[in-house]
């Protein structure tokens, strides 16, 4: 099972790097929200494009960090029985869930979104608001980014759980979100030198 170590590590590193990059937009969202509040309540101005900028950033963050949420085990799970299961039982649930739910979901989202995004790009779709942003087509493209990012991590998640099924444990567990800081190496969790 050592032959799975490299692809899992590469996919995890890519997912972590993408997740970190997109997560920095949360700082931008906070700053833009502050600017919007300042403009509205101090200067009495309402700038539609500034409001939409926060909405765009939120959409980009939510679609860009889906894989990172799966990598760091921050995704939604109904944990009635799962928490008390053995590593192999959890791996069976994870493999089954990936094949029966996650993979079909990603397929449906991708297949339904390609034409939707293509039509938006064709007309260079913009905001419904007069003073809004003219880049709605770019925002809609992040639906496909979500599929790719989560799909890459789903492959790693599937391979990791296959390895657990065979070995009974994970020799190289993924990083936990509370253990990862901005300067850490996503493969080892150690500070870069």
Automatic annotation (TrEMBL):
Relate the assembly described in the record: The complex comprises the extracytoplasmic solute receptor protein and the two transmembrane proteins.
Q: Which organism is it from?
A: Sulfitobacter alexandrii
Q: Which UniProt keywords apply?
A: Cell inner membrane, Cell membrane, Membrane, Transmembrane, Transmembrane helix, Transport
Coarse class of the protein's main subcellular location: membrane
The uppermost taxa in this organism's lineage are: Bacteria, Pseudomonadati, Pseudomonadota, Alphaproteobacteria, Rhodobacterales
Gene Ontology molecular-function annotations: transmembrane transporter activity
Q: What is this protein called?
A: TRAP transporter small permease protein
Q: How does it sit in the membrane?
A: Multi-pass membrane protein
Would I find Membrane among this entry's keywords?
Answer: yes
The Tripartite ATP-independent periplasmic transporters DctQ component domain sits at 29-163
State its role: Part of the tripartite ATP-independent periplasmic (TRAP) transport system.
Gene Ontology cellular component annotations, sorted alphabetically: plasma membrane
Q: Membrane-crossing residues? A: 21-42, 54-71, 91-110, 135-159
